[in-house]
Specification:
This protein has 5 helices and no strands. With 127 residues, it is mainly alpha-helical. Helix 4 crosses helix 5. The longest helix has 19 residues.
Length: 127
């Protein structure tokens, strides 16, 4: 039995708690305001993990904006995915790519590892 991501630990300060209708626009409605509000939320990553893990086998998923992603973006993330995303190996080039696969802003240790890798490649190419 696989364990699903738990509901994000909320404290009431999350942007979605103040205007829930913003996160569930009508069909064809603008999701940009909700996505922008998600950018600084402290549970954004957990929220996205929850939404990705709670897609049923028939392909139905949570509607609305979750973790800064729309229904369509989450569907694209899960196409061909056979297993849940594993933990991020922070401070490595692979960790940097893991953040990008999750549509996340890479953390500073991962950005540093990516910069170091690029510098190393430039040095090796110049030699």
């Amino acid at each position: 039995m696989t364990t699903r991501a738990p509901y994000p630990p909320v404290n009431g300060d999350e942007p979605c708690r103040h205007n829930p209708d913003l996160w569930f626009p009508s069909t064809g409605g603008d999701v940009r305001p909700a996505k922008e509000a998600c950018e600084g939320c402290h549970v954004r990553v957990e929220c996205l993990a929850f939404a990705l893990d709670h897609t049923d086998p028939a392909g139905y998923q949570l509607s609305g904006v979750w973790g800064g992603t729309s229904d369509t973006e989450r569907r694209q993330m899960t196409v061909g995915r056979t297993r849940p995303l594993g933990p991020i190996n922070h401070g490595t080039p692979g960790g940097y790519r893991s953040h990008l696969r999750r549509s996340e802003e890479p953390c500073e240790p991962c950005r540093g590892a990516h910069r170091d890798m690029k510098a190393h490649r430039r040095t090796a190419a110049a030699a």
